[in-house]
Amino acid sequence: MAAGRTRYAPDRGLTSRMVVTMFLIGLLYVVFVGVLIALLGKAWPLVVLIAGGLFVAQFWFSDRIAAFSMGAREVTPEQAPELHGAVDRLCALADMPKPKVAIAETDVPNAFATGRNQRNSLVCATTGLLRRLEPEELEGVLSHELSHVAHRDVAVMTIASFLGVLAGMVTRIALWGGLGRAAGRQNNNTPLVLLIPLVSALVYVVSFLLTRLLSRYRELSADRAGALLTGRPSALASALTKISGDMSRIPTKDLRQAEAFNAFYFAPAISGQSMAALLSSHPPLEKRLDQLRRISTQLGG
């Protein structure tokens, strides 16, 4: 789970957090499936089949689904020479394989990276981002995104978020009555039937908190690694300030559409102080800027 053979600075804190998160998520997953099997009796093969199928789909196709959902369109060097040029320079600097390069047609200024590994990855910038940033600022953002691929935390977040998706789905099915009827046919025990949505909701909350804690740290780690690779933390800080300031000018409808994918984005698509900000997948802007100022002082010294 480390940065591997790239020149991105390794982050032991990120690695340890990924290991701990995966262990706790795995433990929670085993308990969750075990409880469902116990409650559903002879229907357990269906539980295992659905859980296994969803896990495989989440791991192998989540990056493609996310990219498609966010409107990412792969572009050639001829179609986007400046974007490809920036990615080429950063990949040469980091000594890592070049990912696919894409653009999303939206005025929301942002960027994201997806992929299970370095050779199966994609980095995308929105048209709103490309219009607003100077070349050095753009490279800072792209360096941040490529560090997610180099550190492989994108793959870990994909796996870690799967349990929350599964628990949320089971909760909805149980509330609709599907699992309740299945369990009721097995033992006619109403208290046990009621446990299904309760356990699912509890698992969802725990997995949500675990992924949020990891997500906030990995964003700080990507800022740090990206700034150290380019040697220009001030450019990344400038991009952060510019993007966060412009979020308040984006129509609320567009922000709501993008908000579902905040865990992938460079900056969260939210505006103002709200519950969404408190539960954000990213650390506060002030904390990110403070870290970049300290890195700038360190490099200057």
From TrEMBL:
<dbReference type="InterPro" id="IPR001915">
    <property type="entry name" value="Peptidase_M48"/>
</dbReference>
<feature type="transmembrane region" description="Helical">
    <location>
        <begin position="154"/>
        <end position="179"/>
    </location>
</feature>
<feature type="transmembrane region" description="Helical">
    <location>
        <begin position="20"/>
        <end position="37"/>
    </location>
</feature>
<feature type="binding site">
    <location>
        <position position="144"/>
    </location>
    <ligand>
        <name>Zn(2+)</name>
    </ligand>
</feature>
<feature type="transmembrane region" description="Helical">
    <location>
        <begin position="43"/>
        <end position="61"/>
    </location>
</feature>
<dbReference type="InterPro" id="IPR050083">
    <property type="entry name" value="HtpX_protease"/>
</dbReference>
<keyword id="KW-0482">Metalloprotease</keyword>
<dbReference type="GO" id="GO:0008270">
    <property type="term" value="F:zinc ion binding"/>
</dbReference>
<keyword id="KW-0645">Protease</keyword>
<feature type="transmembrane region" description="Helical">
    <location>
        <begin position="191"/>
        <end position="214"/>
    </location>
</feature>
<keyword id="KW-0472">Membrane</keyword>
<feature type="active site">
    <location>
        <position position="145"/>
    </location>
</feature>
<dbReference type="GO" id="GO:0006508">
    <property type="term" value="P:proteolysis"/>
</dbReference>
<dbReference type="GO" id="GO:0004222">
    <property type="term" value="F:metalloendopeptidase activity"/>
</dbReference>
<keyword id="KW-1003">Cell membrane</keyword>
<feature type="binding site">
    <location>
        <position position="148"/>
    </location>
    <ligand>
        <name>Zn(2+)</name>
    </ligand>
</feature>
<keyword id="KW-0812">Transmembrane</keyword>
<comment type="similarity">
    <text>Belongs to the peptidase M48B family.</text>
</comment>
<protein>
    <recommendedName>
        <fullName>Protease HtpX homolog</fullName>
        <ecNumber>3.4.24.-</ecNumber>
    </recommendedName>
</protein>
<feature type="binding site">
    <location>
        <position position="219"/>
    </location>
    <ligand>
        <name>Zn(2+)</name>
    </ligand>
</feature>
<keyword id="KW-0479">Metal-binding</keyword>
<feature type="domain" description="Peptidase M48">
    <location>
        <begin position="78"/>
        <end position="295"/>
    </location>
</feature>
<keyword id="KW-0378">Hydrolase</keyword>
<keyword id="KW-0862">Zinc</keyword>
<dbReference type="Pfam" id="PF01435">
    <property type="entry name" value="Peptidase_M48"/>
</dbReference>
<dbReference type="GO" id="GO:0005886">
    <property type="term" value="C:plasma membrane"/>
</dbReference>
<keyword id="KW-1133">Transmembrane helix</keyword>
<dbReference type="InterPro" id="IPR022919">
    <property type="entry name" value="Pept_M48_protease_HtpX"/>
</dbReference>
